[in-house]
């Protein structure tokens, strides 16, 4: 898919001017790319029309090649369709804020509620209460209780003999007594949208008057996800969507369709089974993902803006000749720092975004300052010839830089890994990238 798109764009790249035929050809590829990413047919049709209009009458930006312009238009429009900005959760003027989770069986409601409760706890110091409103699925209550225990959040349940509406009613009373600031209601799902389920959910909605009704949708179900979203939204008028299981190899085309078909914002995405795997949804990131480019576009943009071209060529030369030394290491760090937070950059490399090893990666800018301090404590000779760094030199450098000797050792190890990795990257292989993270 991406390959096809890139071929079409590559062809354009070699041309000075774009003709209407060129645009047509690229648009055909983009249409296919979107369909393959599971975007709904009607949505693709409308989308392609908009882009074609913009592309033919293109505002010619001088700094961009025709190919880049088209990619940019596509990217802009995709982002626009998905709502441009991240949308946050509603908050009740008076506690508790009530969030009701709905969706088909297996979509990820119960898991997502746990993730959300944890997020609220961490980010807002919230004291949420979970209500176990799914009395049908075997062990659903236990599942929620276990999740509650793991994240240390109380769970209100009354077993399986009492109606969900009554459970919610009593749960809300308890939340008010205990002054919980958030109430998260878990509900039952079915394999299909059906009337009985919808009636029950409507009753809960009427009683609880939730501030948010979040629809959980499994991104892996592709086209079907759109139908499901439509069904739930018509019945319940949901306030937002959570797209789960985006850690799989789905392109996330469902995100585009759901937003376009329901008009409701996607608020969060689930990217794994762990309680920490819930992220705010950013339309611009998703649009690049749908196009299958990781965040490659942004990376290219940033690189072009910030990376001194001459330096880059020099660096490549050094990689090839394997003469990369500590002076280059520092240069490299400085360049990378200009591009933004390290963890963002690494995630933009195709194939890296979903690499589990990088899931919780955080690179502290202070760490880079420390690395610099260490290198600046080396003599010129040592910087050029890292093999000189024997234990006694390492101790001297540690003392000079005010860092523990373990830090010096770790940095030398990282340097060696980076050097090795660069050798690989210059041969077009990204797989050594993890080595750079020192784990
Ligand atoms: P429910 O029936 O809607 O309550 O769905 P559950 O919360 O029980 O989730 C069903 C399954 O999907 C469980 O095995 C979850 O661990 C899994 N799951 C939920 N969200 C995600 C996600 O974002 N990524 C992955 N890989 N699995 C998920
Ligand atoms: Mg459940």
From TrEMBL:
GO terms for MF: 7S RNA binding; GTP binding; GTPase activity
EC number: 3.6.5.4
Record-linked Pfam families: SRP54 (PF00448), SRP54_N (PF02881), SRP_SPB (PF02978)
Top-level class of the enzyme under EC nomenclature: hydrolase
Domain SRP54-type proteins GTP-binding, chain residue ranges per copy: 96-292
Reaction equation(s) it catalyzes: GTP + H2O = GDP + phosphate + H(+)
Biological process per Gene Ontology, one example term: SRP-dependent cotranslational protein targeting to membrane
Limits of the Signal recognition particle SRP54 helical bundle domain: 1-82
Assigned GO CC terms: signal recognition particle
Domain AAA+ ATPase: 95-403
InterPro entries hit by this protein: AAA+_ATPase, P-loop_NTPase, Signal_recog_part_SRP54_M_sf, Signal_recog_particl_SRP54_hlx, Signal_recog_particle_SRP54_M, SRP, SRP54, SRP54_GTPase_dom
UniProt keywords, alphabetically: Cytoplasm, GTP-binding, Hydrolase, Nucleotide-binding, Ribonucleoprotein, RNA-binding, Signal recognition particle
CDD domains xref list: SRP_G
TM ranges: none
Chain positions recorded as GTP binding sites: 103-110, 186-190, 244-247
Domain comment (free text): Composed of three domains: the N-terminal N domain, which is responsible for interactions with the ribosome, the central G domain, which binds GTP, and the C-terminal M domain, which binds the RNA and the signal sequence of the RNC.
Family: Belongs to the GTP-binding SRP family. SRP54 subfamily.
Free-text function comment from the UniProt entry: Involved in targeting and insertion of nascent membrane proteins into the cytoplasmic membrane. Binds to the hydrophobic signal sequence of the ribosome-nascent chain (RNC) as it emerges from the ribosomes. The SRP-RNC complex is then targeted to the cytoplasmic membrane where it interacts with the SRP receptor FtsY.
Listed NCBIfam families: ffh
Subunit structure: Part of the signal recognition particle protein translocation system, which is composed of SRP and FtsY.
Protein name: Signal recognition particle protein
Protein species of origin: Liquorilactobacillus oeni DSM 19972
